[in-house]
Structures are given as structure tokens and as C-alpha cells.
Amino acid sequence: MGAPQTSPKEIPRPPVLHQSLIITLFGIYRRTATTAIPVAALVDLLGDLGYDGPGVRSAVSRLKSKGVLQSESVAGVAAYNLAESVQATFDEGDQRIFAEYPQRRPNDWSLVLFSVPESKRHLRHQLRKHLRRLGFGTVASGVSIGAGQLLEQARHRLSRHGLAEYVQFFRGEYFFNGDVKDQVAQWWDLDTIHLSMQRFLETYHNAFELWTQRLEELRCEDGTDSAEERDRQAFQYYVPMLTIWRRLPYEDPNLPAEYLPADWKEPDARRAFVGTHQLIGPLASRYVARTVAAHLP
């Protein structure tokens, strides 16, 4: 008896850019191998997610022009790998994206002060962008605040991009007579972050339960075809989910619960992702590795 075929309606198809999915694929594959991914394998993998070949090749070309990917030849086969600078970003992000219970200390803050000469004002935008993408909020012009544990990430990120000379870093406690929660609501756009978490949960709130049941059904099937179909389905579900999720921990302030609204959705969203990641992440990785191997000599 063959494996049950999952209809497209059962696997969410959230609108995700080709480039974002490709970066996710490299992030998955680099955990189990160091070989670059052949272009033909990328076309096949994105094809499984409903994207056509010309669009994939165009996205790869754009990522190369941006310095995100670098071309390589593997046994005469045209392939791509992540640029070294991007690999460092993936390394620093693993704990934040995949941790089940991130470390969050009360009243432990990072403060980043930056001053950029008017002649280099374009660097101000870069500084703000990097700090915002690390989860920092804004106290005032040239003053950003974040959770204490983000300080080293900020130092490494800004140093790597040649921006550290414009910045001063501080770490310590914050003394305030009122409710810190009120201050946090001013420093971060909590409504927008909350909405992002809510949208993620609208699609994936029952992902763990769904896949627990699905894997149990597939265990009743016999043969290699069933295992391969299981891995393919896991890949189709997991890659868009990870692509959407991996940005959310960087939007979140990463603060203790007492500093955030009572209905803050990040813990629910993290539980939904981490549980599903532990369940089907290895299956998706195996599918990627098998597809890549099929395109190598």
C-alpha cells in the first residue's frame, strides 16, 4: 500500500520570496554537509515548494550579486555556497532561532550609543538597521536599547560591518520609579511584533499535533517509497515555516515576560516552531541531502 498523498491544501503555502527560501535551504544543508548545492538541486527543491526554474535561477543570480552566495564547482558541476560573512550570521543566530527556552534575565540591559559624522550619514541607516534586526529598541536618536544578552552579538555584528568605531556599548541595570513595561512599549513597536507572531500562529499553531498524527499514519505504511514521501512532505512543510520563523526572534525584544503584554504571543509561537522543528527538521534535512546527492557525480 502506497504512502498517503498530501494535497496542497493540507500543506500551507505562505507567500515567501524565492531568495528567502534559498537562504533557508543553505541554512538547513550546512548543518549536515559542507558541499555546495548544485544549481539543478536548488531548482528541484524549490520546484517541490511550487516555484518555477527560471524564477529560482534569477533569485540565485540576485543573491550572488548581493554577496550572499558564491559560485563554486563541485566535480565539474555548477554549484553555490553561502559567502563566509553570511555563514557567520547563521552561526550567531542558531541559538536564538532554535532555542526552546531562550535566556532572559530581568533588569539586564544593553545600551548602544552611536554618533556618525554628517559626511557619513548613510552609515546611520546601516547602524539602525543592524541593531533593529538584532532586536534592539530605540530610546532616542543615536540611542538603542536591548536585552543584556544581545550585547556581544551587537558588538560582533557591527565590527564585522566596519561600524564599531562609531559606537559605544554599555551593559547594566535600569533604575526607573515607574513600570518598566510602559517604557518597553515606547522603545519597541510591540503591536507590529505581536501581529507578526499572531500571523505565524494562524498558520502553524497546530503544526506539532498535525505532524505527530501524520507521522503515526505514515509509520503504518511499508516500503522505501513511504519513507521518501514522508521526508518530502516534511520538507514542503518545514522550509516555508522556518523561513517565516527565523526572522521573528530578531524582531522580538527577547525580554522577560513581566516586561511584555499579558497576551504576548512569542512563547506560543516558539513552542509551535520548536516542537515541529524537533519532529520534522531532521526529515527535511535528509530530503535536502538526498536531492543534492542526486545531482552530484
Automatic annotation (TrEMBL):
One matching Pfam family: PaaX_C
UniProt-listed Gene3D superfamilies: 1.20.58.1460, 3.30.70.2650, Winged helix-like DNA-binding domain superfamily/Winged helix DNA-binding domain (1.10.10.10)
Entries under InterPro entries matching the protein: PaaX-like_central, PaaX-like_N, PaaX_C, PaaX_trns_reg, WH-like_DNA-bd_sf
Domain Transcriptional repressor PaaX-like central Cas2-like, chain residue ranges per copy: 107-178
Record domain Transcriptional repressor PaaX-like C-terminal: where: 188-289
BP GO annotations: DNA-templated transcription
Domain Transcriptional repressor PaaX-like N-terminal: 19-85
Protein name from the UniProt record: PaaX family transcriptional regulator
Organism whose genome encodes this protein: Nesterenkonia natronophila
